[in-house]
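Everyone, describe these structure tokens:
***
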Amino acid sequence: MPRPSRFRDVLRIGPVKVGTYFDRRGRDRHAAACTAPGCGFSADYPDRSAAELAARTHQCRP
């Protein structure tokens, strides 16, 4: 049986992926994470627009 995907509505903006998930309290949360090797940027936000803004303004410095 395949493992269910935790993230839904995943969007890629440059090297950053933005996804929506439920936290432990059942609330919608939004995460932005850079997929570039050695970067390490990731953050959680309460609304989708903040996560997308962080993805659009992120500058990698690996």
In short: Helices lie at 48-57.
